[in-house]
């Protein structure tokens, strides 16, 4: 009891923020009808309906980021909200509640590419943001023994209700091949019903509990702008003023990609009763506008009490003695009228969705609803941003969908379920998560009843894909190229007349419907006769034997009938594979260019021998041994490469020493070293038949043995070309 004053003070707020979208999961259905215009006015054109009449539909949602409950337990008798709810307090808690009632409404096509919709609608939004949840929770506890001073922050609250009379128009803007674009606009006349708005600045409260309503007091600080659509202090009954009105606007575009459109199915866009897109992209802006309340009032309240002008604190009795909340505010706080009209702004939002026709009647929709207005603006309704993913099954008389979404404030995944059965639909964006979660912060429900009048199925009696209105043979299937009539086959040869070059004489398809002939009467049909105008034997495919290349070898025996060549080579010219001017038949190196003098093999020049000896001079041996040092391997590999280039050449390896030591031993050492090099080269793939070795000891010096440099030059292995 002691805290109900400030509980009532912020009951206006209800910790609320408007829901992002009504009829979640349903409005993207291709059979949503007039309800789809609320989300994107472009959706009503090229519709599955000839007419859709809404008798009554209802959508409501609530939620918050402060309290979490097991939703269905909350309706049970004895449920203690304070004890059983899970609390998530912050300095800026939020929640939402909104109601959307749609009265008699309808949509219909006024032309193949033009549609309109007229709807009636009653809406109520309540927004509050940035309220200290811990303080509000303490205020509501009647069993609390004390309430310390605490800040409520700077909340912004808007409560607004109004009626709508809307007129939507949509048209096909662009249609070419697989690309289809439509646009729509909705103009809305708005009739204001009631409005409250509250914007606080640095509000705090301290409670002194004496146990008595007469003496228990509240000390408050801060300022607040509080206004309403009428002076509820003098008349608490809501009076609808015909002058409290406004105008609203919705805009939308829808693009559809229709890959089934082909040259053979150019009529696909004319089919009204079937889905034609693989992907659909939609974007819209809704609720542009405001409502102006002619009798609205707005005051700036000084909430500082006690103060110089009001030295005593507020008591519970002060609130009990007030007829209503508005009267309580005027009687207990200093206030001044704020100039300006009381105008409530609609919750302008951008909506975007992508709808994917996965296969036949199965779809997946991705949707985003984003508020584009400031949530802190005075008397500004706003939506909570929402992102959702909705798989659905959709058919003419039945749809089922499971929206999975995430929304601001509640900060949790919501899973719902919905059904449409032609004349009735019901659903929720959160019912499945509400069933299993013990910490639900949101719940919603929508339902409706309508009279759908579907588009008639275009007639195609013969089922050839060409509508009867365009089919010149409506009862007999035929291709579009022949205007729906079947192609004939006068000679019954299986080749249709359109492809038959002899339509009155039977013939095989391979000859375009004409019979095969034998013009040269050689017994070989023209289809098999390579010389159809000249008689020839069957063995030569109907051509006479000849000698085309005039080489004296008849074509039947000539393996190269188009090129002259000797008989010894079956009429083919001798080749010269390596192009060195030496024919392969005498070329000892047919795959490597050489010279005529060397029988087609490359000649080993003096430069090549010098190159080999430059490498061989770098071959090192262990002292007084024929063992080749490892650092000589690189030079030996270079020798292998050169010898492989001249594969027909033979080489002699000659070993030499200096004059140091015994001549006989030097002679043997030179022979061993020459043989060691030869064996190395053989091991590397050089044919042994191409190599020989000999040693000459000290007998063939090339420099003076009197100097160290000369002796080093004399110790060598030379490579000699063997001709």
Automatic annotation (TrEMBL):
<dbReference type="InterPro" id="IPR006665">
    <property type="entry name" value="OmpA-like"/>
</dbReference>
<keyword id="KW-0472">Membrane</keyword>
<feature type="signal peptide">
    <location>
        <begin position="1"/>
        <end position="20"/>
    </location>
</feature>
<keyword id="KW-0998">Cell outer membrane</keyword>
<dbReference type="Pfam" id="PF00691">
    <property type="entry name" value="OmpA"/>
</dbReference>
<dbReference type="Pfam" id="PF02412">
    <property type="entry name" value="TSP_3"/>
</dbReference>
<protein>
    <submittedName>
        <fullName>DUF5723 family protein</fullName>
    </submittedName>
</protein>
<dbReference type="InterPro" id="IPR003367">
    <property type="entry name" value="Thrombospondin_3-like_rpt"/>
</dbReference>
<dbReference type="InterPro" id="IPR043781">
    <property type="entry name" value="DUF5723"/>
</dbReference>
<dbReference type="InterPro" id="IPR006664">
    <property type="entry name" value="OMP_bac"/>
</dbReference>
<dbReference type="Pfam" id="PF18990">
    <property type="entry name" value="DUF5723"/>
</dbReference>
<dbReference type="InterPro" id="IPR028974">
    <property type="entry name" value="TSP_type-3_rpt"/>
</dbReference>
<dbReference type="InterPro" id="IPR036737">
    <property type="entry name" value="OmpA-like_sf"/>
</dbReference>
<dbReference type="InterPro" id="IPR050330">
    <property type="entry name" value="Bact_OuterMem_StrucFunc"/>
</dbReference>
<feature type="domain" description="OmpA-like">
    <location>
        <begin position="608"/>
        <end position="723"/>
    </location>
</feature>
<keyword id="KW-0732">Signal</keyword>
